[in-house]
Every structure is written in structure tokens, then in C-alpha cells.
Amino acid sequence: MKFLYLALMLNRFSLQKQSQLQRDLREYASFLGTYIKNRGYGWFSRFEVGKDFLVDLLYKKRGRYARPFLHFGTLALVFLLITIGPLVFRQESEGGTGGVGPILNAATAYAPDFYTLQAEEVAQYRGGEIITHVVEEGETLSSIAARYGLRVETILWENNLTEKSAIKPGQELRILPVDGVRHKVARGETIYSIAKRYGLTEASQAQVIVDYPFNEFLNDETFELAVGQYVMVPDGVPPAVTAVAGPTRRGVLTPDAGTVSATGAFIWPTAGQISQGYRFYHKALDISNRAGGAILAADAGVVTVAGWPDGSGYGNRVIIDHGNGYVTLYAHMSVVQVQVGQRVNRGDVIGQMGSTGRSTGVHLHFEIRQGGALLDPSSFLR
């Protein structure tokens, strides 16, 4: 009986303690809410007073401080860029992409890197500028040519020297940006006659003059030259245009190949001789044949472009997506023999060689692309 009474007393005491604790908590919460309300109202009131003062000041001055504020903001932004910017770029360059490292690199040959490398190549050729080299003690024609990445013959031709000519310290030599010949245009000359004069006898070989990015023409469609101007003839050897445009011509269509699968190996797309190789300003292979001839799909794939849809310098062209990351382009065709959406096998006829678009003679302009980058076809064709 005594134990039961003791338990009841303890339970009653516990309930009283819990009730007191609850009252204390409610009183504390009420006090805290009142305190925060009063203090917050005070802070807000002072903020409003300061804001009203600043607004009134600016309104009275009517923009007098606008320029200082603008200057201060600009300086603050520059300061942030200088202090924080290097840290951000450093993290990105060190692989700050979720631990996977840089997304692109030179080996992947994707478009951003490709265009960066192309810009570096253009800079290497000095924008087509001809510089003057002053011969120093101990230099030879061979050492000078090696210094600028040129053949000795290029320096000899440009400076009216022969293999037996001697150079001496202080002598000035004109240095061309690329191997070849620089020619001053005379009355009646065309890119064809100039090309022929310097050993490029096929009409299609005059394409090197057109493609050299620093040669200028009075008319980009006809390649008209001005008397007295200089043009560069890459790979020309001293002795010694009219672009064909028109609607798409279609011959007998090659039958659809049905389900196809690329092999990953490319065959030669046509027969002929290489009239222009892969260069920094001509990332393709030109194959010329005076008699023309059939153009073949270098590998199996799906035709994505067939014809002359935009009036560009490619003329009649065919583009094939091989489904394995590679895309090939065949330009300047006289006749197109496939259509968009058609599937072709490796070696199927897709058209005939011609000279449409920005072309100087019958030839095939052949490109291999990957991820937007133009690769050297000669590395793939065997």
C-alpha cells in the first residue's frame, strides 16, 4: 500500500514539473518573439531613414553622382575579374569539369581545337606578308631557308639569285610566306596563263592560286586580276577564271543500297592526279582528270547533301555521313547521281567529275571531316 502511494506521489510531482517546463518554454518563446519584433522594427526603421536620405540626395542632385557610381561599379567589376578570374580559369584548365579533365585536346581534332590550330597556322604564314631578312655573319641560303621553313629555290627565285650566287652580311633578302613564286600581273594575264607559266599546266591546277587565302581578285566569281598586282603561286616553278555556275545536273541515279555499314576504311574516290594537296588554307585533296570520270563513295553511308543548294563555291556536291563519326564531301561535280536520304555502298557511283562552283578546271575536291574538323585525306587513302 505504501509503495502504491509513493508511486502516485512521484507521478503527480512529474506532471507538475512537466507543466512548469511547458509554461517556461511558452514564456520564453513569447519573450523571444517580442524581442525580435522590436529589434527588427528598429533595424528596418533605421534602414528606411537611410534609404530615404540617400534617395532624396540623389533626387536633388539629379544624376550628379551617376558618373561616380558608374566608375566605381566598373572598377569593382575589373577588380573581381582580376582577382577571381585567374582562379576560375585555372580550375577549368586543371580539369574542373567534375573530375573528368579537359573535354577537348589537340589529339581529338574536334572543331574548337581545329579552328584554334588553323588560326595558329595562318599566323605562321604572317598573313601573307613578305618580310625582309638582313643576312648576318655566317648565314647561308640553306640556313636562312631552314629558318623560315622554305626551300632554297623559293628564296633564289624571289631575289633573282642563282645557285651560284653568293650572299654577304648586310644583304637584304625578301622572304615569301610559302614555297612558290610571286608574280606581278601584266595586261591580259589570267590565273590560267599565270599557272601555266609556272608549271601548273592543267587548268585545275590553277586552283592553288584561287585557294591561297591572301591572293585578291577584282571579282571573286571570275577571278579577275588587276594589272600590276602581285599574286602568289604556291608550289609554282619559274620557266617557264571563269567559274562554271549553273543548276544541278542529275544523271542516271545509282540505286539505293538498302542497309549499309561503313567499313572505316576509305577508297580513292576517283582516278586522276593530285593537283593540290592538303594545306592550312586548303584542307582537302584535289584530284584532277582532264577527261573527267566517275566519282565513287569512299565508304558506305547515307547521303545528306546532293546538288547545289546554296550557290556556294563547292558547286554541285555530295556529302555522305558514314555513321561512325566521319563525313566525306565531294565537290565541283558536273553531274550528281544520288539524292538526299539515299544509302550508298563503298564504291557506288555518286556523280561525275566537273568544274562547277569556284573551280578553275575539271577536278574533284575531296574532304574528310570528323567532329567539324577537316582531316588530311592522304592519311586515310591507300
Could you outline the blueprint of secondary structure elements for this entry?
Blueprint: H1 2-61, H2 66-93, H3 111-124, E1 131-134, H4 141-148, H5 152-158, E2 172-175, E3 180-184, H6 191-197, H7 207-211, E4 230-234, E5 273-276, E6 285-288, E7 294-296, E8 301-307, E9 316-321, E10 326-333, E11 335-336, E12 343-344, E13 349-352, E14 363-370, E15 373-375
Antiparallel strand pairs: 1-2, 3-4, 5-6, 6-14, 7-13, 8-9, 8-12, 9-10, 10-14, 11-13, 14-15
Helix pairs in contact: 4-5
Textual characterization of the structure:
There is one protein chain. With 382 residues, this protein is α+β, with helices and mostly antiparallel strands. Among the domains are: 131-175, LysM domain (Membrane-bound Lytic Murein Transglycosylase D, Chain A), CATH 3.10.350.10; 186-234, no CATH class; 273-379, Glucose Permease (Domain IIA) (Distorted Sandwich), CATH 2.70.70. 34% of the residues lie in helices and 18% in strands. It contains 7 helices and 15 strands. The protein has helices spanning 2-61, 66-93, 111-124, 141-148, 152-158, 191-197, 207-211; strands spanning 131-134, 172-175, 180-184, 230-234, 273-276, 285-288, 294-296, 301-307, 316-321, 326-333, 335-336, 343-344, 349-352, 363-370, 373-375. The strands form 4 sheets. Strands 5, 6, 8, 9, 10, 12, 14 and 15 form an 8-stranded antiparallel beta sheet that branches. The protein has a 3-stranded antiparallel beta sheet with strand order 7-13-11, with no helix packed on it. A hairpin with an 8-residue loop joins strand 5 (273-276) and strand 6 (285-288). Helix 4 (141-148) packs across helix 5 (152-158). It is elongated. The model is unreliable at 92-119 and 240-245 (pLDDT under 50).
